């Protein structure tokens, strides 16, 4: 099977597995992948080295694989990455970078990256990190996110493009409105928050049910239902719960609730 033929269901299943293995909220990981790549495992940025489901640039990918690869069966890759995240052998380097297009590897590394960033951001901000905070760390790098969030707290109407001219040049749609006016830090942050949460209620509800249907794979199977609950009841509960989670912009992503725990179990049972 080629990367281009990887199904959305397989991509979503990889995200579920990564969430279950790392404890990072699957709804955040799913939203990030939708926003970054539209759930396309072979997505490639036009103006940077970003590639894959989570659009890791080369340097960030090498860093996270070096730190966490061995924990997830990628010891060969982690061992090959030396000081300064350099890989001596060119073919090995390309093989490691190609893992960005593997849904399982990309989802696991994205989850570990989010966990690392959460700890670092909370130490700087003195508060719980939201999903949007974590996305800023993925988008701008940890140092950039700290700079963005600290400046936003002090001067919410400051221009994002003025603070990050290089990033603005490569991501005009993020930093500038359609009329060419630069967006403020708050406007940039709120747009990402809305996109992660899903702004189209009807479309989101339909997508949630479609997601639950395909990933849970119920189709009359009662192995993941409880008591007198039918498979249809379980499906309705799952899609509704996913919708409720979509609305949460402030959440401890490393402490799943009973609802997210049950969703993860249902999804894994459907694999």
Report on this model:
This protein is mostly helical and 271 residues long. The chain has a domain at 3-43 and 101-197: Lysozyme (Orthogonal Bundle). Helix content is 63%, strand content 0%. The protein has 14 helices and no strands. It starts with 7 loop residues before the first helix and ends with a helix.
Descriptive tags:
mainly alpha, Lysozyme, globular, 271 residues, 63% helix, 14 helices
Radius of gyration: 19 Å
Identify low-pLDDT runs.
Answer: 1-5, 199-206, 218-225, 246-251
Shape: globular
Please write the string of helix (H) and strand (E) elements: HHHHHHHHHHHHHH
Q: What's the story with the biggest beta sheet?
A: none
Per the CATH scheme, the topology name of the domain at 3-43 and 101-197 is: Lysozyme
Give a count of the beta strands, DSSP E runs of length 2 or more. Answer: 0
State the CATH architecture of the domain at 3-43 and 101-197.
Answer: Orthogonal Bundle
CATH class of the domain at 3-43 and 101-197: Mainly Alpha
Structural class of the secondary structure composition? mainly alpha
- Report how far the terminal alpha carbons are from each other: 18 Å
Q: Helical stretch count?
A: 14
Sheet-strand content, in percent, reads: under 5%
Helical residues, percent: 55-70%
Q: Report the mean per-residue pLDDT as an integer.
A: 81
């Amino acid at each position: 099977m080629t990367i281009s033929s990887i199904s959305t269901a397989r991509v979503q299943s990889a995200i579920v597995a990564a969430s279950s293995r790392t404890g990072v909220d699957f709804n955040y990981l799913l939203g990030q992948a939708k926003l970054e790549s539209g759930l396309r495992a072979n997505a490639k940025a036009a103006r940077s080295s970003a590639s894959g489901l989570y659009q890791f640039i080369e340097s960030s990918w090498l860093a996270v694989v070096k730190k966490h690869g061995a924990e997830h069966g990628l010891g060969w890759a982690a061992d090959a990455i030396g000081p300064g995240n350099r890989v001596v052998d060119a073919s090995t380097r390309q093989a490691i970078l190609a893992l960005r297009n593997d849904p399982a590897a990309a989802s696991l590394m994205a989850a570990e990256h989010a966990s690392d960033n959460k700890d670092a951001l909370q130490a700087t901000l003195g508060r719980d990190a939201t999903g949007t905070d974590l996305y800023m760390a993925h988008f701008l790098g940890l140092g950039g996110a700290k700079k963005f969030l600290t400046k936003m707290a002090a001067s919410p109407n400051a221009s994002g493009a003025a603070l990050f001219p290089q990033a603005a040049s490569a991501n005009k749609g993020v930093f500038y409105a359609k009329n060419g006016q630069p967006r403020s830090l708050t406007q940039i942050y709120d747009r990402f928050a809305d996109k992660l949460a899903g702004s189209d209620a009807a479309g989101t509800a339909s997508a949630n049910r479609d997601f639950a249907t395909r990933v849970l794979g119920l189709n009359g199977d009662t192995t993941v239902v409880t008591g007198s609950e039918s498979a249809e009841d379980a499906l309705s509960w799952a899609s509704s719960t996913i919708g409720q989670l979509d609305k949460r912009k402030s959440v401890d992503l490393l402490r799943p609730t009973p609802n997210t725990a049950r969703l993860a179990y249902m999804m894994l049972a459907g694999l």
